[in-house]
Amino acid sequence: MSNQNKPRSHEPIVWLLFAAGGMIAAMLMPALVVITGIGAPVGLIADGSLDHERVIGMLGSPAGKLLVFPLISLLFWHAMHRIFHGLHDLGIQAGLGYYRVLCYGFALLATLLTAGILFLI
Amino acid sequence: MKAHYQRPMGRWYLRPFYLFVYTLRELTAVFVLLYALILLSGLAALAAGPEAWASYRQALAHPLSIGLHGLILVAALYNSITWFMVAPKAMPALFIGTRPLPGLLITLAHIVVFVIVSVALLVLAGAG
Amino acid sequence: MSDGSGQIDILISRYDPERDDQPHTERFTVPYQHDSSVLDALLYIKDRIDGSLSFRWSCRMAICGSCGKMINGVPRLSCKTFLRDYAPGPLHIEALHHFPVIKDLVVEQAGFLDKLPEARPWLIREQEQALADGPHRQSPRQRARFASTSACINCLLCYAACPQYGMKPDFAGPALLALVERYNADSRDQGRAERMPLINAEDGVWSCTLVGNCSAVCPKGVDPAAAINRNKLESAKDYFLRFLKIGSGGAE
User: Fold this and answer.
1) Are C61 and C149 in contact (CB under 8 A)?
2) Chain B touched by C210 (CB under 8 Å)
3) Which residue ranges form the domains of chain C, and what is each CATH number?
4) What is the pLDDT of residues A93-108, one digit of tens each?
């Protein structure tokens, strides 16, 4: 009954990303949804501030990129971690390893895409 | 001696209400994913140029999109509340002398920060 | 809620391994008074109606941890649950969920008991102190660090409340991981490194999804969900800092 032969789980890697994304989602997402999804489209935001150049100037600055990259990528890690564990909760056992690669692979892909686009801006 | 009886798990994630509450929390991830995709496509539109950006903004102004964002907002608020409620369990234990710091205080502290940050973001955005 | 006495219908999930493939429900009507517990009702049935009814119990005062049952779908100590709160009934009693049922309300506890040694639930010292050197002294503040986790009575209600344990019986589970935290948080103990492999394992803290139900049903206020999730942070630190050799050291 030795503990020493229990293999170490690699879950900490994805759990830390999930937790960081969770804090971002919990603290910022409601306000951001109101701003980007409701306020801005309805026209509640000062005219002209959403013009292409203005937004590029804001998000394309080094500070803007530094804020946007973790925001978007960590939301993906948060969501995909929960979705993967949700599959387990639904009782899915066959192919769970495959779904693991699929879920976290998707989060990784979205992270790379975010970084790539920010690089282009 | 015959076999023991092992009760099947069935659809545990639906049936007792307190477990359905957990399931709803986990389901908010679908809306977080949707929102992350919307933000990422916005970023892509921004990179693609002024025309793509204009049509992205046009799509977001569609009533369906605004309705969807209303749903995302509800899910996000639910996620926030549940996140703050379990926060005291996920952080190192804090004590005042021999007394554990009440979890409710830690939850409230999170909510205070949340309100301040949200108001600040909304004011900043409103000012353009 | 009624405050007086009366009669209450109780539905009991019965299972006889010699005859049944799965449990069936039997109805009993028992008298109750203001201070009658669910355990009193079970004893009444066994003494006066059906002597073949099987269930575990001992102290009748919420300290032995043996009389846990599902009461209207919620794991509770039957000695600490009162019939008056369920009047006029009916009240449904089943064996604790997630454990194999041996007979009626008696479950096989091996899923917990067999794992108990993995928690190393005793004080571990790098070097034993000689008796002549006196006791290990501990301040009230140090004692407070494990006051709540040391209240566990191994009643297994938390296992019956945990869907992750239900789906994966290899999961160490709430009480076992709370026990790990109880010793790790003890200033006299130096065995953290020995317990880390259990915490770090897939079947350790990483099978928990923080449903939180274990803490909600605990009759002793242990909060296993907190004990487990705090150790996720510890395990994550251990995962990344082990290369710096400061992750899995002894006691603080």
Assistant:
1) no
2) yes
3) 6-107 (3.10.20.30), 110-244 (1.10.1060.10)
4) 889 999 999 999 999 9
